[in-house]
Amino acid sequence: TAIAPWPGAATGAGGEIRDEGAVGRGGKPKVGLTGFSVSHLRIPGLPRPWESARPLSPRYASAFEIMRDGPLGAAAFNNEFGRPCLAGYFRSFEQESGEFGLRRGYDKPIMLAGGIANMSAGHVQKLKLQPGDAVLVLGGPALLIGLGGGAASSMHGGAASAALDYASVQRDNAEMQRRCQEVIDACCAQGGANPIVAIHDVGAGGLSNALPELLHDSGVGGEIELARVPSADPALSPMQLWCNEAQERYVLGVRPDQLDDLLAICARERCPVAQLGTATAAQQLRVRDSRGGAALDVADMPLPMLLG
């Protein structure tokens, strides 16, 4: 949001929608809210007595630009997804600290996204993946966007390099988000026959975070093939394919005897899906990339070492 207010706020709202959809074995987002904390607005042509002039970061959008574009981006994503955004807040704040050269404010803004969802009581708890279960990715393709976004958003303003700041900007696709949600809704509508064993949203860290957590939570390992990851950029390196934070994606586990049912739902909803690998009894994460013909071992490590 600090670098590109519209897509930043849009993907913030989209990420919160995925948080709701990935609860348990699938949730249904209902309504949303968004909020923004920024420094003094300094509206062009409308100076206010409390807004003293000072240097501003050339890498960040101004507070005025953020409040002009950010709420529209968040509202647009909610509307295009099909969820009303009914509440929110806005705050501008700056204050002298009493220390020479130190003034507190929100030059790096806070963009808050929240919402309300519902779900079946029988789907609140995720089930455990078993050895042999299919591990899939649902949603849009991998792209060279959002690389390091989770890291950049967690740093103090100005602490990240310019390259990391700009690489962290993401791209929103509310239509793809809606296709994914239609698949989740159709699975949940089957009640006890829901084919989703467990589901995890893809956010900060991309697949490199979502897949290990999905497997580790069930006490299993996994064998993953990066060549199966849907990608819109054939030039992505294994690291970029594994770590990019392209939006509107989930990873999920499905029993082998229900895989065809899930794939049929995805085809009906025109939602991209791919089986990336299988769960294994050994708690070992093995990631390979065979796009170049000969398989390249990308990662081979115990999951407890990675996640504790």
TrEMBL record:
Biological processes, Gene Ontology terms: purine nucleotide biosynthetic process
Region annotation (Disordered) ranges: 1-28
GO CC terms, sorted: cytoplasm
Domain PurM-like C-terminal intervals: 130-288
Gene3D superfamilies, alphabetized: PurM-like C-terminal domain, PurM-like, N-terminal domain
Biased composition (Low complexity): 1-10
UniProt GO molecular function: phosphoribosylformylglycinamidine synthase activity
UniProt-recorded name of the protein: Phosphoribosylformylglycinamidine synthase
Highest classification ranks of the organism: unclassified sequences, metagenomes, ecological metagenomes
